[in-house]
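Let us work through a complete example step by step.
Step 1: write down the sequence.
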Amino acid sequence: MEDDRRLSDMVQRFCQEKRVTLPPPCTQAAFERFAARTSVPVPPPLRSWLLKVNGAAIGAGYTYGIECDRENEIEFLYSLRPEWAEKAWLPIANDGCGNHYLIPTKHEYGPGYPVFFVDTSVAPNEPDYLCASSINLFFLLLLEWVLDDTDWPFDKEFTLRRDPEFLKFTGIRYPWDLD
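Step 2: predict the structure and record it as tokens.
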């Protein structure tokens, strides 16, 4: 509950400082249409986010959404990267440089919905490293990183202090282990 309030406060702060206006939120009907078209269900934590922020210029680049501006639509990204749809990975944001943050929906790295980074210039269909243990925490840490210049996600101590569930995910690299 406290993290939800903090995340809402950070979104509001970002919008004020960067002069960003949020687009209309996603709707329950749009979630159903998306799932019918893609066969990829939208997990509850992402639904909650998209009911507030649906494809906006938030963070270092943009967040993605459903039935929003075409370039920010998850389905548009699926047309460019069909492997992501096949794996049931949901892109949720980009870094402003052509790389993406995604969530695996099949729990292949552990329980829940962690967020990982994909460096499209290196391996566009493989996770590069884990970013956060949950969707809400990802967006909170991303906004803190952009607004407050934190050391997330590469500083191990900082990241584990802010995200104590981080290490429960396996089979994926951690950002501090990059070569």
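Step 3: interpret the result. The chain has seven helices and four strands.
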